[in-house]
Amino acid sequence: MHATSIPPNTPAAPDKHSQKRSSRLGRRRFLTTTAAASTVFTFPTIIPASALGRDGAVAPSERITLGGIGIRNRGGYVLDFMLRQPDVQFVAVADVRADRRAAVKEMGEKAHGSGVETYRDFRELLDRPDIDTVLIATGDRWHAPASMLAARAGKDVYSEKPCAISIDLTERLAETMRATGRIFQAGTQRRNVPNFRGAAELAWSGHLGRLHTVHASIYELIDRHDWLPAQPEPEKDIVDWDMWLGPAPWRPFNQAYVDGGWRGFHDFDSGAKLLDWGAHTADLCQWALQADGTLPVTYEPLDVEGDNVIECTYANGVKLIMRRAGWMGLGTCPVRYEGDEGWVETGDSGRTAVSDDRLRAALPPIPDEPGTSPKWHVRDFFNCVKTREQPACNPDVMASSHVLCHAAAIAWILQRKLTFDPDTLSFVNDDAANRLRSRATREPWLV
Amino acid sequence: MKRLFLRSLWMCGATLLAAAAVVPARAESPTQATPANTADAIATLQSDQPLFERAMACRSLAIAGDASAVDALAAVLDSHELAAYARHALEEIADPAATEALVAAIDRVSPDVRVGILTSLGRRGDKRAVPSLAQYLDAAEPEVVDAALSGLAQIASDDAITALVRHVPSATRPSSLAAAILLAAERRGVGHEDVLAIRALRHVDALVNDAANIDRSGDIRRNLHRFADAASAQLVLRHVDDAAPRLAALLASDREDAFQLGVQAARQADAFGVAALLKAFPTASPRRKIALTSALSDSKAPEAFAVVLAAADSDDADLRRFALEALGNWPNPAGIERLLESLGDSDAEIVATASAALATLDAAAVDEAIVARLNTTDTSTLVAAAGLAGSRGITSAEERLFALSQHADDAVARAAVLALGSVVSQDRYPDLLDLLAQPTLDRKETQAALTQAAQRLSRDACVPSLAHALDNADTATRQAVLEVLGTLEGDAALHLIAEAAASDDEAVVDTATRLLGRWSSPAAADALVDLAERLKNETFQTRAVRGLLRIVRQFDLPLERRIDLAMAAAAVARRPEEQALVTEILLRYPDPRGLTAAMALVGVDSPDAIDARVLPIAAALTSRGDAATVVAIAQLKDAVHGTPLEPRVNALLEEAQRQVATAASEEGFVPLFDGSSLSGWAGSRSVWRAEGGTIVGGSVNEVVGTGNDFLCTEKTYGNFELRLQFRLQGEGANGGVNVRSLRRDDGVAAGYQADLGHGYFGGLFDEARRNRFLATPQLHPTLTADWNDYRIRCEGPRIRIWLNGTLTADFVETDDVSDRGIIALQVQAGRKVEASYRKIRLRELTGAEIEPAAAEEPPAEEAFTPLFDGRTFAGWHGNLEWFRIENEAIIAGSLEKPIPRNEFLRTDAPYGDFELRLQFQLRGGAAANAGVQIRTAEIPDHHEVSGYQADMGDGWWGCLYDESRRNRVLAGPAPQDRGTMLRENDWNDYRIRCEGDRVRLWINDVLTVDYTENDPAIARTGIIAVQVHSGPPTEAWYRRLRLMELK
């Protein structure tokens, strides 16, 4: 190996002031965020029904109204938590599939005992002036265009991750949110899950010493360009294929996509599937490093014993390692933070492992909640809808970690080390990589 | 050549093999396109190939296309299916020709497509497009106007923003224009000095006030107001002169959106923001007061405190709650007092909110006040105060909390126990344990307190207490203690749980096996093996096996240990589900013992299962070259005797034996290192030393050297096999072994390097020369932390590397670089690392072993038989519309018309090992392309064929392309050398020789390819065919086709 490819082994402390902050990821820093405002371990209180209003409930006219777009598995899970908020009224669902419209309508009406309107075209839902907020849980290709249209229609947005399928769209989504001034929460809920919060606080507390390496789990990377065999298109009212494709370039219909089999396809997925977990785990690493608004400057794909590893290095030498293997079995989406004086690893099981008893003692008591739970995250969102604060995963936070993941995925796709300039959000001296920052987009969804 | 991309369908299973399948699929993807493919992609796009191929051609052009692709892309802009693909490519091609092509297309396409083109112009960000976009602001179709506005907003240049402002008086789509101005201003970035953006934002007011717009429909008016409010908020943030009145107007607006934007702006507007918020407060609705309270409390402005405090007494419960939360972030005595008072509130939710706020308040006075409240009589206050003593970790409350744990009121007692989890001292931990048996308490809560305390206190000190508590306790207590132990980890806790799992209390076994099944380190493996052997209960036994498999699959383990455990799992896995998991692991970590175990698990009766789950293990092992592999594969061969699998196993066995034979022969090797001195070697003696039969580079104790240090032989070597052992030590150590290199004046060895280091092992890097990997491993042998074997063979143009017996690099040189040079050892010193080398030995290869291609005498012409009679197509078939015979030559294609698709004239008979000779001429433009297929398969009812192609055409001359199979160039001359040997406007000779795994091509007697096929699945026989490639009018002339079969 040539000498210059090995970075100097002189990690610096992850001091957020020494990091190079990107001017394009949050030209104007949001002043406060609910999660970062306090470094003490607290979670937003759930509004209990009994405490609200004179008669024990929020009057329907005072409730935050909610519409759902593209609600299936994950969306249904998140919606379930939203339906439990006493100050939220779910009033409408839009879906390209008739069966999903019916199922979600039933789910909402069961919870509220009142009507939920259904739409095939989500633009009709967005046109309703009485809807305050939307939950967007379509496939990845739709997240950013639907979020931008919702913001332009005056809605506050909770969007499942990955919120944008390219660097270009990430930037434009964040711009739209800043310009329109809507509240936006990315569905990367682990910043509002206790054990992940606990691990980050351990990192912030200095108990780990200077952080030099953080690890983010990723799952299999896949970048398929093939088309599944064409099948006859169903009636528009059953499945609106044109609307399902939406902004994605044309391809023939196949039911498998619609049934959730779209993952791994370049036109539908984000960053060769890297963002499926990476949007969570790299985001958590950024958080632990207090590096929101900054990005690693080099991205190097390594093939370590058959596993795909991407080594990302910040300007101050701190490393973020994305890898699939070698985790401690603490559940899905694990992360690990390593400092000069110890390490912490945690995952969706809610359990946390640390290097020694000293760190164990420093860990705060942690309520038991799986990493997949958006319990506090949805509450954070609705609280911010009321207070107009910025939520934990606001557009700036989202944009940093999404761009990071996309850059890493592009390095993997091209199988070469890439250098990235956070100021211009572009790769240095690599035309192909820069061209992979954007996607083909179909008319008329060029938001 | 090439259908560009195979429609690859592959599984995404969890096995290593499936993961490996990702690599070729990725290699074929259009994202790998290079400028060299551009002509190809253009030809594909212009052909009548299926949509998929043309869509992928667009995608390749989006990655690598240049001005030459613009016309072809513009031609499909009005294709419903391809437009988005083509536009994307045109967005990414930097050349202004792309802008021109898009502009030129606007008028000739339908309004739908026009929307796309206008937006694409915006995305290009090319300022030259501004006048064209501005022209469409007055279009009849609203969608087209919106697209033009959006395009201008994207470009956001001075010209673009000026065009937007000029359009204000005549806007037909006022709300879209307002949105465009808003987005353009944002895209330009915040700047108080951005006069143009500020002027544009101010113009939005004019849109709202325009009488024409006041009469518009509700939707348009509503949207227009929203964008105008957002523009006003942007102006506030830009500190314009009238920021304060604008902010006041937003906060006083009856539009909810406007109010919200106002609060958000006020949060960032310093002093005048607070003033505006305070002014808006008295008349605001309760819901608005929540936002105002939150923003005021975040400001921490002294004058705002009274308002927040008063809000905590509001009639509105929601506002009251937010106000109390806000007081928790504001350490002020009056606020603390208000929160403490709320602990005694009759409303439980107010108590909960106040408690949460107090839990984190940073003020010493809070602790004292809470300890004082632990002595009140009011039970709800006691519960809240106890909870706070815990959440604030007030250790001075320990004694009082123990007393409260005996309180007559259950809620108080339970709150006290939970709090003790956070405050109990090591000495009193046993007392807390005693509370597990107290029936008035909730055992789960006591368990939680014990867990929390043990996490906080010393694990070693808690375990003996817990062990003691396990003795003579009832089942439920033992279960609770086990749960606590389960959270502690460590060997002592593990031992206690393993013991409990072997007890005869079924409920206890249930708890213990569950805990072991999710243990967070591999230390539980032995206990799980033991339990899996002993447990009778099927549920628990399965649980133990699953726990064991989890460790073997997921944890970092030394290879030996992993195989040991996998073997143990094979012995205890009783159900087919677990057995399948075992074979999956054995495939992931191939080992001879694992092969035997997998065979035993699968059984001889299911050939499909052997094929799927056992043979891949054998295939992964063959290159190891060890005796154990041969024995294991021989056993496998016996097991499949007489089945259709036997020939394949036999082939694997022969390969394994061959590897053993090669690896074993040490005859003729001479040491390059005398074991005690560095004589015969050149390099810095401050970096390199001879030590105990070893050459050591660098040091783990101190930093020496430059960071890239070499120890070079004084002699040079050409064809040889080099064997050695290496060891790397220290964090991030990296080294390498150079061969056929040149020692430069600065001491750097420039040339081939067999690389060493995490992520680099086994690869062939071109050090200080082309500076890239020439070959990287497909297989990744396991390395030990100690010594590992390297074997490097240089043979004519071919260089191979074996790492611990596995072939990791197989490279054939095609560039003109030296085939002789020094050998060098490398260490990346400059850090505390060492690279050590020993048993360095070398055998020079004799001429007979090498078979240098150039030295070979070509066979005489008499030995060849004609393959084409010069007059008829006898012995050949194909689509004769595209083939004719003239002057004893086969002419493929036509110069009269474009070639719609690839056409092949095929031999009737197949050929395996042979030498084929022929003459050719290629006529047509620069894009003309053709080739000769060998060892090829016909695709039933299809115009394509699949197999090797000796390629013809600019950029492809002399390459071996894998047509409709792997779809890439397998080997070929360096791009700049392709075609240099051609005679223009004359007949040229192709010579194609296939012998076993080896395929060689010569054009005009210049060797262009010497390729060795490593994939046993690729056919070694097939038909021969001559091709004309789809694209512009082309004729490929072939004559004097003659062949000699090789024995």
Calculate the terminal CA-CA distance of chain A, rounded to whole Å: 46 Å
CATH architecture of the largest domain in chain A: 2-Layer Sandwich
CATH class of the domain at 861-1045 in chain B, anyone?
Mainly Beta
What is the CATH H-level superfamily of the domain at 861-1045 in chain B?
Exo-inulinase, domain 1
Q: Which value, in Å, is the CA radius of gyration of chain A?
A: 22 Å
Structural class of the secondary structure composition of chain A? alpha/beta
Strand content of chain A: 15-25%
Shape of chain B: globular
Largest interface: A-B, 92 and 137 residues
Sketch the topology of chain A as an H/E string, one letter per element.
EHEHEHEHEHEHEHHHEEEEEEHHHEEH
Number of helices of chain B: 41
Low-confidence region ranges of chain B: 1-27
Mean pLDDT of chain A: 86
For the record, the CATH architecture of the domain at 861-1045 in chain B stands as: Sandwich
Number of domains of chain A: 2
Largest sheet of chain A: 9 strands, mixed
For the termini of chain B, the CA-CA separation is 29 Å
Number of strands of chain B: 30
Oligomer: heterodimer
Total strands of chain A:
15
Overview of the molecule:
- The complex is a heterodimer of chains A (447) and B (1047).
- Helices cover 32% and strands 16% of the residues of chain A.
- With 447 residues, chain A is an alpha/beta fold.
- Chain A folds into two domains: 178 residues, Dihydrodipicolinate Reductase, domain 2 (2-Layer Sandwich); 163 residues, NAD(P)-binding Rossmann-like Domain (Rossmann fold).
- In chain A, the strands form two sheets. Chain A has a nine-stranded mixed beta sheet. Chain A has a six-stranded parallel beta sheet with strand order 3-2-1-4-5-6, with helices on both faces.
- In chain A, helix 5 runs antiparallel to helix 12 and helix 6 crosses helix 9.
- The longest helix of chain A is centred in the last third of the chain and has 20 residues.
- Chain B is an alpha+beta fold.
- Among the domains of chain B are: 114 residues, Leucine-rich Repeat Variant (Alpha Horseshoe); 96 residues, Leucine-rich Repeat Variant; 75 residues, no CATH class; 182 residues, Jelly Rolls (Sandwich); 185 residues, Exo-inulinase, domain 1 (Jelly Rolls), CATH 2.60.120.560.
- Chain B is 45% helix and 19% strand.
- In chain B, helix 32 packs parallel to helix 34.
- The two termini of chain B are 29 Å apart.
- The relative contact order of chain B is 0.05.
- The N terminus of chain B is likely disordered.
- The chains are: A alpha/beta (447), B alpha+beta (1047).
- Chains A and B meet through helix 5, strand 8, strand 9, helix 10 and helix 13 of A and helix 1, helix 3, helix 5, helix 7 and helix 9 of B.
